[in-house]
Amino acid sequence: MEFTTKTIPVEKTSASRLAQVDFNNLSFGGVFTDHMFICEYKNGAWQDARVIPYGPLSLEPAAKVFHYGQEVFEGMKAYKDAEGKIWLFRPLENQRRLNRSAARLAIPEVPEAIFMEGLKTLLQVDSDWIPTQAGSSLYIRPFIFASGTGFHASPSDAYTFIIACAPSGAYFSGEVSVRIEETYSRAANGGVGYAKAGGNYAGQFYPTKLAQEAGFQQVVWTDDHTHEYIEEAGAMNIFIRIGDTLLTSPTSDRILDGITRKSILTLAEAEGIPTEVRKIKVSELVEASRQGTLLEMFGAGTAAVVSPISSFGYRDQVYTLPKPEKSYAAYIKERITDIQYNRAEDPFGWRYPVGN
Ligand code: PLP
Ligand code: COI
């Protein structure tokens, strides 16, 4: 069967929760829209794609996701412009990355048509849930998990693919302070760091909790081998401005190939901001801070958008970032969100119309 927004069956809820939501005080990812897209993999094929009311799932305790963490996910956003039109930002990048993650976790890939048509159908059904308040958007969480049963440590024979959505405000409230981590590692060579596998995040919770107890919000990971080089943060890639140059670490099998990251690199290059994608030593950061040439650090990601970092902790020292008047972070955030919310031209062809 062909998958289109016309052929995907929709079962509408009889009890919308929309009126209960305070759209002026949205947290991040705390309330969920009325519907979800669901599709199941059985007998070697994805089937039964449909939109149904958002609600609890029924799974056996022996479902493999509970035992072996066979799960991958994505994070995307839908935006509503001043005329009420719905837009996505580079959604095919998410679709492809979901499948790269899936392949690494021995999960069957989801065909592009199921992902895109399922997503568009869901957004049309739940379009009233897309916030229009400044800084808010609809956070979209596609995910695939092993729903087949068995205690044998081997891939499941059944999977469930769901897209759920949450009208959301900012991921961080205010500026972010980070701790550069030297004890724990997020990822290792040959591992799953580049995949958006749920377990990558679970493994960060404990070190992040320790960092939070020490007064920081996020951990900046260093390479697992020497702990000398900056990699990325828990939920975002990291940019560093030294002098006029914008630096970020190269992606590898330990780092998530962020869509915001690569969009920022393209944007910065187009705007004449000198960029360097190279390994960055923590000692270089510390030295630049001492010399006064470290002007900015910021995180970049779908949830985080562009989040300025106010300070970083390293080996019991806290280094405070200055606040330059012409901040790259502020400029880039404005440029990128203007494209996302259809407030400006999109010379790169990143915006994707959903259609009502
Ligand atoms: N790094 C990690 C670990 C993330 O979870 C995310 C969020 O998706 C990012 C980076 C940023 O990626 P993107 O810009 O594609 O959202
Ligand atoms: C995103 O930015 O979409 C992410 O997946 C980060 C997440 C851990 C909230």
Topology:
Layout: E1 35-42, E2 45-53, H1 65-68, E3 71-73, E4 76-80, E5 86-89, H2 91-104, H3 112-125, E6 137-146, E7 159-168, E8 176-180, H4 198-213, E9 218-222, E10 230-233, E11 237-242, E12 245-248, H5 259-270, E13 275-277, H6 282-291, E14 294-301, E15 305-314, E16 317-320, H7 328-340, E17 351-353
Parallel strand pairs: 8-9, 8-15, 12-13
Antiparallel strand pairs: 1-2, 1-7, 3-6, 4-5, 4-6, 5-17, 6-7, 9-10, 11-12, 11-14, 14-15, 15-16
The structure holds pyridoxal-5'-phosphate and 2-OXO-4-methylpentanoic acid (COI).
Helix content: 10-25%
Task: Please identify the top-level CATH class of the largest domain.
Answer: Alpha Beta
**Could you describe the largest sheet, including whether it forms a barrel?**
9 strands, mixed
Which structural category fits the helices and strands?
Answer: alpha+beta
Domains (count): 2
List its traits.
356 residues; alpha+beta; D-amino Acid Aminotransferase, Chain A, domain 1; D-amino Acid Aminotransferase, Chain A, domain 2; 2 domains; nine-stranded mixed β-sheet; 7 helices; 17 strands; 23% helix; 28% strand; binds pyridoxal-5'-phosphate; binds 2-OXO-4-methylpentanoic acid
Structure, explained:
By secondary structure, the chain is of the alpha+beta class. It folds into 2 domains: 18-168, Aminotransferase class 4, branched-chain amino acid transferase, N-terminal domain (D-amino Acid Aminotransferase, Chain A, domain 1); 176-339, D-amino Acid Aminotransferase, Chain A, domain 2, CATH 3.20.10. It is built from 7 helices and 17 strands. 2-OXO-4-methylpentanoic acid binds at residues 75, 201, 235, 301-303.
